[in-house]
Amino acid sequence: MKAGERAAMVLARRITAAGSDVWYSRRGIQLVAVLLLGPFLAIATERAPAASPDCPNTSWDVAHEVSVFKEAATHISAGLAADGAPRLDLNKLYQATLAPVERVTLPATTKPSQRHDSNAGMFALEVPESGSYRVSMDGPFWVEAIGAEGPITSTGFQGRQVCLMIHKIIEFPLLAGRITLQISGATSSVKLAVTRSAAAEHGPAQ
Question: Which CATH architecture has domain 63-196?
Answer without folding.
Answer: Sandwich (2.60)
